[in-house]
Amino acid sequence: MSLRIGSQAPDFEADTTKGHIRFHDWLGDSWGVLFSHPKDFTPICTTELGYLGKIQPEFEKRNVKIIGLSVDPVEDHHRWLEDVNRVGGCEVDYPIIADHDLHIAKLYDMLPAEEQGTAQGRTPVHNQTVRTVFIIGPDKQIKAMLIYPMSTGRNFDEVLRLVDALQLTSAHKVSTPVNWKPGEDVVIAGSVTDEEARTLHPHGWKNVTPYMRVTRQPGLAPASNDAEKEPA
Q1: Is 226 an active-site residue?
Q2: Which of 15, 25, 40, 45 is catalytic?
Q3: Phi and psi at residue 137, in whole multiples of 5°?
Q4: Do both 22 and 117 map to the same domain?
Q5: For 73-122, how does the pLDDT look when each residue is reduced to its tens digit (9 = 90+)?
Q6: Looking at 83, 90, 101, 139, which residue is catalytic?
Q7: Is 214 helix (H, G, I), strand (E, B) or coil?
Q8: Which residues lie below 8 Å from residue 49, measured CB to CB, with a gap of 6+?
Q9: Hey, how many other C-beta atoms are within 10 angstroms of the C-beta on 114?
Q10: Which residue among 21, 48, 90, 103 is least enclosed by CB atoms within 10 Å?
Q11: Whether residue 49 is found in the same domain as residue 140
Q12: Which domain holds residue 206?
């Protein structure tokens, strides 16, 4: 099965470092970040798990649950976490899925469906495509995917920024421009007419081009540059 943005995130049952879960039930009404690893005891992944453990409270503020996946058994995960916590100076509190039989890696199209065997005897190179971040909405649909090679550590500050953008644009008819950060101006969605925009953005907007209407991020207090924007 090929997964894309807008696809339903496949449900599954699995053992984790926090016990047995059914994924959709575990997510509940929360957003989710599922990030995968090709093997336990790999250096770059060790740094990633630790950093995400440090910034987990930022995701929790945004109603986002974090869950990891690695192609190894739970017992190995627990031993690996000793290194992760020591190297990262943290205490990882999110669950890590055991995908020893490769079922979830194949379910999420990170390994070919016809791949044979289990994690036993496989090296990180065999599993190198199991390096994906899936951001999943409360509706259980995939909202974004980020795929990295083994040699490059993932930027979880960017994942957090992406979550902010996804949550904003799912709640309001706006889009976020290049390098957007929370609090900065946004673009009114092209599907919104000027008439509707006057209701949604009574403070007005700035016409940068005929197809680009820039306005204040919804929910923020009035800004000094509102005077420069087109009147509602």
Answers
A1: no
A2: 45
A3: -85, 170
A4: yes
A5: 999 999 999 999 999 999 999 999 999 999 999 999 999 998 888 888 88
A6: 139
A7: strand
A8: 37, 68, 81, 84, 88, 92, 96
A9: 6
A10: 103
A11: yes
A12: 172-228
